[in-house]
Amino acid sequence: MWSCPLNGTGGEDPLPCLHLQRALSALSLLYLLSGVPLGLGYNALLLLANLHDPGGMTMPDVYFANMAAAGLLLCALAPAQLLGPGAAGGAAWDPGSEVHVSLPVLFNVAALVALYSAALLGLDCYIERALPRTYMSSAYNTRHVCGFVWGGALLAGFSSLLFHICSHVAARLVECARMRDAAADDAIMLLVGYLVPGLAALYALALLARVRKEDTPLDRDAGRPDPSAHRLLVATVCAQFGLWTPHYLTLLGRTVLAARGKALDGHHVGTLVLAKDLSRFLAFASSAVVPLLYRHLDRNFPGKLRRLMKKLRRGHQSCSPDQAGVQPVTA
């Protein structure tokens, strides 16, 4: 599953690497057996419970539904990513194959959607808290914002797809090779995918903390928001950025090492690869953590789930045959 790049040469002891490799493999199997089904189930329930009544969705519900869609995408990618290329052993994992190109692109799309949704959730909650009568952060506007988030995330992965298309043109192989720069890709994803939403989330949390300390006339008129909603917001933002930060720190490390231009020995390469594997595992774990937070901290979710179950039961009963209207056939 996870591969240990250390081979014991150069006086390095491979045992710590092998122990960490086994620990990562055990955590990956545990996540695939429990975390992926849990994430698929709760993300699907979150989406269905909110989408079956679009008129009843609030602004936070739209953002959580958006994060649930990204979580479903991560759960779908988890088996192929966590099992690793070495487990497949087929031609589909060739560096020039469609699978090798599409998996990182979809992973980056899910990462961008998850972090930008969390950051925008914090900013819109501040707007709703500070200006409660403007309707700037309505559910209608939020749906359009989420559409732009998905569109921007797809455009961010366009460069990888462009290189893959270009690599199939034999006459342009040299130009395609010049276009590909892994360090530049890492730097762009670090800036666009983490620093921008991270600063926005910190700014939103600081504004919310300041507003909660002030008692303005708008506060007395509109009333304080539900404390559970604030706890859900803070827990979601902290969970998303806390679980995704190691992934972007590894991108930062790879970018710095590439900028220095120095070759790494086997020990440092092994450390970097294992750090990348561990950070990827934490990133996939966010797909199960966020819907669980929504399930336990959102007071309206149990009611939405009960209404969804009643609607499904009514639909099932309407499709069942009417036993009372069946007349026996006599000879």
UniProtKB/TrEMBL annotation:
GO molecular function: G protein-coupled receptor activity
PROSITE patterns noted in UniProt: G_PROTEIN_RECEP_F1_2
Gene name tied to this protein: GPR146
Name recorded for this polypeptide: G protein-coupled receptor 146
Assigned keywords, A-Z: Cell membrane, G-protein coupled receptor, Membrane, Receptor, Transducer, Transmembrane, Transmembrane helix
Cellular localization per UniProt: Cell membrane
UniProt keyword annotation of Transmembrane present: yes
Transmembrane portions of the chain: 29-51, 63-83, 103-127, 148-171, 191-211
Source organism per UniProt: Capra hircus
Membrane topology: Multi-pass membrane protein
All copies of domain G-protein coupled receptors family 1 profile, residue ranges: 42-294
InterPro entries named in the record: GPCR_Rhodpsn, GPCR_Rhodpsn_7TM, GPER1-like
